[in-house]
Amino acid sequence: MKISPEEVAKVARLSRLDLPQEKLELFAGQLGDILGHMDKLGELDTDSVEPMYSPVEHTTVLRLDVARKEFSRDEILGNAPRQDGQFFIVPRIV
Hints:
The protein is mainly α. Helices cover 39% and strands 0% of the residues. The protein is flat and about 65 Å long. The two termini are 49 Å apart.
C-alpha cells in the first residue's frame, strides 16, 4: 500500500507534530513498507488457526483484592508538606 507525504502530514497535524518535508517523505516510505507487510500478512489463510491471547504460555498469579489498613493516618500525614491533622492541605485550583 502506498501512503503519500500529504497523508503523513495530515496524521502529523492530528498528532500535533511539526515535521519538515524531508521527514514527511521518509515516514511516507517507511509507513508504506509497513502497510505492504501487513497486506502480505493479510493474504495468509488463518481460518484453521486458533486465536492466541498471548504468545507466552504462562499463568497469571492473582491476589485477592482485600482492603487493609497498613498505615495510620498520622504516618500518612507525616509525609505531607502541609496538613491540618486530618487532611492534606493543597493549593486551590479553579
